[in-house]
TrEMBL record:
Top-rank taxon, per record: Bacteria
Statement: the UniProt record of this protein carries the keyword ATP-binding: yes
ABC transporter domain location: 7-247
Gene3D superfamilies: P-loop containing nucleotide triphosphate hydrolases (3.40.50.300)
Entry protein name: ATP-binding cassette domain-containing protein
InterPro entries reported in the protein's UniProt record: AAA+_ATPase (IPR003593), ABC_transporter-like_ATP-bd (IPR003439), ABC_transporter-like_CS (IPR017871), ABC_transpr_LolD-like (IPR015854), P-loop_NTPase (IPR027417)
PANTHER family, alphabetized: IMPORT ATP-BINDING PROTEIN
PROSITE patterns: ABC_TRANSPORTER_1, ABC_TRANSPORTER_2
Taxonomy of the source species: Bacteria, Bacillati, Actinomycetota, Actinomycetes, Mycobacteriales
GO MF entry, a single one: transmembrane transporter activity
Statement: the UniProt record of this protein carries the keyword Cell membrane: no
Length: 247
C-alpha cells in the first residue's frame, strides 16, 4: 500500500563558499531525493562531512539550499519550504515541524517548564493543557522537578538536552528532525529518551534523524539512508545498511 509522504525532497543541492583568499566552494549536497512517510523513522548515517547535517538543516531551512524542492505535506496541502517567506516558515516550524539539536537554545531567564510549554502552545494547546503536557514530558525524561523553574543556563549539558527533547516531542509535530539528540546523556537517561522517541511512530509522527550511535539506529529506524560525498549511497533496513557500513 502506498503511503503519502509527509516530506518530499527532490534534487536538493547545497554548497558553501569558504573564507579563503580564492573563495573556493565546497559542495555539500549533490541533488538528493528522499521521501519520509507518517510514522516512519528515517536515520541518516555516514561519516562526518558526508552531507547528513546539511540535509537536515536544509529541510529545517536553517540552511537555504542552492536549488531543489523541499515539500512538507500538511492538512492544508503541500507547502514548498525553499521559497516560503521567513515569517510563514517560523509559524510552520512552530506548528508542523520540530527540530531537536545537541544544544538547547532558550531565551534568557527562561525556565525548562516554560520552554516546553511554549512549544506545546505553538502546536495548538491551550495554556493550561500546554503546562500539563510540559510537566508530563519533563517527568518522562526524569528532569528533577526542582529544576523546572530555574534559568536554563544553569542546567548541565545533559539536563539541557532533555529539555530540548521534551520541547521537540511535546504534543509532537507532523515532522520531527533530530540532530544527535542523545549525545550528552548518561546511559539511564539515554534509554528514557530513546523510548520516548520510539513511541512517536505510533502517533504517526515522521522522524528524520542524524545519529552516530549504531545501537540507536538499529532500535529506532525503519530505514537507514547512508550518505557519502554529498549524495545517497544506500537506503534500506538497518540490518542491511548498518551491517556493512559504520555510521
Amino acid at each position: 500500500m502506498q503511503t503519502t509522504p509527509v516530506l518530499t525532497v527532490r534534487d536538493l543541492r547545497k554548497s558553501f563558499t569558504l573564507h579563503t583568499i580564492d573563495g573556493r566552494k565546497v559542495t555539500s549536497l549533490h541533488g538528493v531525493d528522499l521521501d519520509v512517510a507518517a510514522g516512519e523513522h528515517v536515520a541518516l548515517a555516514g561519516p562526518s562531512g558526508a552531507g547528513k547535517s546539511s540535509f537536515l538543516r536544509c529541510v529545517h531551512r536553517s540552511y537555504l539550499p542552492d536549488s531543489g524542492s523541499v515539500v512538507l505535506h500538511t492538512d492544508d496541502g503541500p507547502v514548498e519550504l525553499t521559497d516560503l517567506p521567513d515569517r510563514e516558515m517560523a509559524r510552520l516550524r512552530g506548528r508542523e515541524l520540530g527540530y531537536v539539536s545537541q544544544f538547547l537554545s532558550a531565551p534568557p531567564r527562561t525556565a525548562p517548564l516554560e520552554v516546553v510549554a511554549s512549544a506545546a502552545r505553538r502546536r495548538g494547546m491551550s495554556r493550561t493543557e500546554a503546562r500539563d503536557a510540559a510537566a508530563e514530558s519533563l517527568k518522562r525524561l526524569a528532569l528533577d522537578e526542582a529544576l523546572w523553574d530555574v534559568d536554563c543556563s544553569v542546567l548541565s549539558g545533559g539536563e539541557r538536552q532533555r529539555v530540548n527533547i521534551a520541547a521537540g516531542t511535546v504534543h509532537p509535530p507532523r515532522l520531527l528532525l533530530l540532530d544527535e539528540p542523545v549525545s550528552a546523556l548518561d546511559p539511564v537517561n539515554r534509554e528514557r529518551a530513546l523510548d520516548l522517541i520510539a513511541s512517536l511512530s505510533a502517533s504517526g509522527v515522521a522522524v528524520l534523524a542524524v545519529f552516530h550511535d549504531l545501537d540507536a539506529m538499529h532500535r529506532l529506524a525503519t530505514r537507514v539512508v547512508r550518505f557519502a560525498d554529498g549524495d545517497i549511497a544506500e537506503i534500506g533496513p538497518p540490518t542491511d545498511v548498518l551491517g556493512a557500513h559504520a555510521a
